[in-house]
Amino acid sequence: MTELVHEPVLSTDDAASCGPLAHGQDVAAHFHDFGQLRYAASGALVTTTEAGTWVAPANRITWVPPFHVHSSRSYGETDVRLLRVPAELAGQLPAEPSVFTASALLREAYLARTGDPEPVDGARARLLLDVVLAELARARREPLRLPEPGDARLKAVTDLLHADPASPATLAELGHRTGSSERTLSRLFGSELSMSFHQWRTLLRIQRALLELGAGTSVTDTAIRLGWSNPSSFIEAFTELVGQTPGRYRAAARGHG
């Protein structure tokens, strides 16, 4: 996943992260004095903030409030469509970064607005933005925020897991590799991330599963690639966190558009 840099900059230009992005392309950490909606018309976009990491395949829209530092990584050939939300309207959306499920109406209004050649303060542009904001107010918020640690000892472990989500290594083994005790790391997972090591790794794997399934990988192959012992345990974990089976999610993602 993308990491935040130490000195993010104020950006007034969307050009660096708008349009086609190659697989694995990074956009460095920055922030805006306006809110930003981020939609991948194809591919998938991973957004990392100080509060955590969100995954948004082509049927999800990411919201980043004003002044929230964020960086990105694309998965697959990703067509990113960005939409500015003026600061005075940002209060209609959550105060923290979020990901929403995109309904057909929301998606079409969003694409019409981002593809509209008229001035942003024109009547049609304002109307389309109003439709987008109204639909977002009704949209389901994706619960899969992966919290990211600040403690260097814990970050050393989570970096290893980001690099290899399928790793079967225990917390004790990861601690041995990074120079921390299992007891210390277990305490840090609870105190800093409010979840256990097992819960965090499962959530990381589920986020990666969204990318795999959205790209068309089968449920069985996704389970194997991400370290589950069998497809049944993957299906159970995915359904509990996402609210639908991976097969249904894959069908909906592949049928998008």
From TrEMBL:
Gene3D superfamilies: Homeodomain-like, Jelly Rolls. Residues 155-252 form the HTH araC/xylS-type domain. This is Helix-turn-helix transcriptional regulator. It comes from Amycolatopsis nalaikhensis. Keywords: DNA-binding, Transcription, Transcription regulation. It holds the Pfam family HTH_18. SMART domains: HTH_ARAC.
